[in-house]
Amino acid sequence: MIADRFSLRLPVPSALLSALHGNRIVSLSTACALSLQLAHVGLLAQAPKQEFTATMVSATFHGDSTTANISEEIAHARRYDGSLATLTRRTIGIPAFSTKPESIEWHEVLDATRRTRAIMYPALHRKSTTPLTSESATSMRRAAPAGCRPAEPDVEYDSAPSNSPILGFRVVSVTRTYTTPDGSRILSKVYLAPDLDCFALQSESNQTDSVGTLLSRRIMRTVNLTQGPPRPDIFQIRTEYVESTPSDIYDEDSTKRGKAVDTDCASAAKARSDARYHELRSH
């Protein structure tokens, strides 16, 4: 099973942390003290795949704030061969760290046939491409479990949640609990559509500290879904974009925003991302 599940800690300064290839790129103008968990679960694959294009929105709140600190507009497409493409616009506004909201856009393509992953940044005309592992490419075509029921233990499964259907599609809910290295706890609930190869139409996640104080919460929902072949250009990997390491992308974005930051936190994150980038490209 492939779950395009990422749990991103964002303890990163500057406008852009390129935590690629196992960690999704993030844009954040904060200090290293900020910790955020995003849990995006779903995207189980089966061949031939159900083809569709979905529009999603998400909002992330910190503590007891009633105003979203991070918001996203997402266009997601799935092709018959299991390939995935996602265009994301993320806006970040955290007054404690920045007086002006910042935005970044990126475009990710996972091509199951060509076994290639590309993350592109239109504002920079840069991209990072790496081969998909054989395991990942195979998983993208693998059949989803019957009823989207997960195989792992200690997972709460509901075949008929109260909010079903969503956008006309029957959903099931899967609830997982994670504990992070620093002792915080993440409760993630995802609503999966069996008729869409277990695509996540809606999700909710809450992160609390070791004593139960709410640190952050994230809500994602699909607002529109069109079945049928996606437009071809959403799967296009731009040949005119410059191939770049994660640290090159980070540094150029920071310089353009006039917020270049050189801290131990940023340096370590860039080093890890670059090492993973070179490791994957060497295979």
Strand order of the largest sheet: 9-10-11-12-13-3-4-5-6-7-8-14
Please, what is the average pLDDT? 80
| Overall geometric form | globular
Distance between the termini: 23 Å
- By secondary-structure content and strand pairing, the structural class works out as mainly beta
- Give the proportion of residues in helices: 10-25%
Rg over CA atoms, rounded to whole Å, is 18 Å
Query: How many domains comprise the coordinates?
Result: 1
Strand content: 35-45%
Multimeric status of the protein: single chain
Low-confidence stretches: 1-47
Order of helices and strands: EEEEEEEEHEEEEEEHH
Instruction: Work out the helix count.
Output: 3
What is the strand tally?
A: 14
Main β sheet profile: 12 strands, mixed
Show the helix and strand layout.
Blueprint: E1 6-7, E2 39-40, E3 52-62, E4 70-78, E5 84-92, E6 102-111, E7 116-121, E8 126-131, H1 134-139, E9 156-158, E10 172-179, E11 185-193, E12 199-208, E13 214-227, E14 242-243, H2 246-257, H3 264-281
Parallel strand pairs: 8-14
Antiparallel strand pairs: 1-2, 3-4, 3-13, 4-5, 5-6, 6-7, 7-8, 9-10, 10-11, 11-12, 12-13
